[in-house]
Design a protein that fits this description.
1 helix, elongated, 3-stranded antiparallel β-sheet, about 180 residues, 5-stranded mixed β-sheet, about 40% strand
């Protein structure tokens, strides 16, 4: 799993060699954030010099972040990730450490999410319907699109069923699309 945070931006506190597996970064200044500690999962940073016109860019995956006196140490670094190249970095070249959403993070999120859509039809006079689903667990979330939104509703879900209850009986058929989402 990738751990991300908003507004990550800081600088290197020491030079980084091509084969280094730890990177030292400064504590970020407000409003910026320091790269988050992934607690053994994967964090991602992007090293870039001169962000207005970058000369070199490197994507780095890391597995730990610890505070050491006056800076943070990003450890377990996989250098040159996601088809970028591992490079040497110095503190005097304007190198910045930024956070950003990368292709690998998006692919991981997509791979770990299942969505199932069901068309639910309430016939005239019906106020409650229960449907079975074939997701491997109870959904993490449910998104409903109700044709006639003026009917209030409640919904519940379990590991195998999904229920919708309308607050009042519709005068005609009501179509509801339900998207059941599970993050594995």
């Amino acid at each position: 799993m990738f751990v991300i945070d908003n507004n990550v931006r800081t600088t290197l506190t020491s030079a980084v060699g091509v084969s280094d597996t730890s990177i030292n970064v400064a504590t970020a200044s407000t409003p910026w954030n320091t790269p988050p500690d992934p607690n053994g999962d994967d964090g991602v940073i992007v090293l870039v010099n001169w962000t207005s016109t970058p000369v070199k860019i490197e994507i780095v995956h890391y597995t730990g972040a610890t505070y050491d006196t006056d800076h943070w140490v990003l450890s377990g670094c996989t250098r040159g990730a996601e088809s970028s190249s591992a490079q040497a970095w110095t503190t005097g070249e304007g190198a910045e450490v930024i956070g950003g959403l990368t292709i690998a993070q998006l692919a991981h999120l997509w791979d770990k999410t299942r969505v199932q859509m069901q068309e639910l039809v309430f016939t005239s006079g019906a106020t409650s319907r229960t449907f079975s689903h074939n997701l491997p667990a109870a959904p993490d979330g449910v998104f409903l699109n109700i044709q006639d939104a003026y009917y209030g509703y409640a919904h519940t879900f379990t590991t195998s069923e999904f229920s919708v209850t309308l607050n009042s009986s519709p005068p005609g058929d009501v179509d509801i699309q339900a998207w059941l989402v599970i993050n594995e």
